[in-house]
Amino acid sequence: MSQSSIANKPLGRGLSALLGSDSLIKTEEKNQSIQTLPIHELAAGRYQPRESFDQEPLDSLIASVREKGVIQPILVRPVYQGLANYEIVAGERRWRAAQEAGFTEIPAIVRDMTDLEALETGLIENIQRHDLNPLEESQGFKRLMDEFQYTQDDLARSLGKSRSYIANSVRLLSLHDEVKKALKEGRITAGHARALINSEFSQELLQKIIRNSLNVRQTEKLVQRTHARPSPRVSISPFSAQDHDEDSQQLIEKLRDKLQLKIDLDLKDNGSGVLNIHFNSFEELDNLLSKIMSQVS
Prior knowledge:
Layout lengths: L2 H6 L7 H4 L2 H10 L2 E5 L3 E2 L11 H14 L5 E8 L2 E7 L1 H9 L4 E6 L4 H15 L4 H15 L3 H8 L3 H9 L5 H8 L5 H6 L6 H11 L3 H13 L5 E3 L1 H22 L2 E6 L5 E6 L3 H15 L1
Helix pairs in contact: 4-5, 6-7, 7-9, 8-9
């Protein structure tokens, strides 16, 4: 696919029948009228960017379909695989809702489409409806780049997004699986996730973000502080190491277990030294002071 052909062909061609104005729908209907198709002849799309459907919105749609029927037609393309004669390109939620509501037929627009057009259309429909979670959107972008040779500039131009938006979205796929799971489940936002992309402590930081209900700005500061701090170590002079290494190591481990915080011990030759206890939030400081005061009161 040439760069010029991509630049000149916007994503989501034909989505007017689902998302656009009445005049555009009429234009589409001149060439492709709305048909009523048996539900059992339809199959879920192979290029559907959504991986999951939230049950609560789906239940609401089922109730609406039972009351008013399927108002907007779905978009399908002809296929010949198994028992299915059509593959859904856009409107899988409406199809699922119609099945759950007991319908045996559904209104649809049938259009011959390539695999690329099917992926493009499914992706742009869901983006315009804000139906994709950040990872599903990222995976959609990645598929267009990997399978259809789109560049980030091509996507930005076609979707009306900035190149940095596309780049930041795709970078989410490099996150640790635990962070991606939290993002998918809505326990953190895409802003939180982006702050953790280059952090080697992402799993540890994730728990602090969730536990302390940090916003994105607080998360960014937490990541900066974490990467600015020295790596855990116990600095002991040769004399101290010979006489006190075992005792000091045990002390540090006991304190770490007790306080659940990062601790550094720096011992001097004369036996003096500095004990550093690190905390990452006011809540951790309050907990630390409470534990100390409970021992001296």
